[in-house]
Amino acid sequence: MVGWRIAVVAGLVLAATPARAQQVGDVVTGERLAAEMCAGCHAVRPDQILIPNADATHFADTASRPGMTATALRVWLRTSHPTMPDIILGPDETDDIVAYIMSLKGL
Known about the structure:
With about 110 residues, the protein is mostly helical. Helix content is about 50%, strand content about 0%. The protein is built from 5 helices and no strands. The longest helix has 15 residues, at about 1-15. The chain is globular, with a radius of gyration of 20 Å.
């Protein structure tokens, strides 16, 4: 009977504990990939003032848009757009670039 009560209490405590969001992707690898694959058009570093292509966004501005989420960035990167070259990213590369861009939020 005591074991059952302990199990119930433990279950309630675990259920009430907020789950920690697990970051997907590696920021450092994402920064490197962005420098290699995206910097020809975008300003990818937070201290970068000039944007190589005036029609491209600064990554810090992209990250700081109201409502911008990692999911929204993943969808954007997996959808072809006429203003972007046809760059094919693997799932890990996408996760890394998304992690890097989201790390710039508020900068």
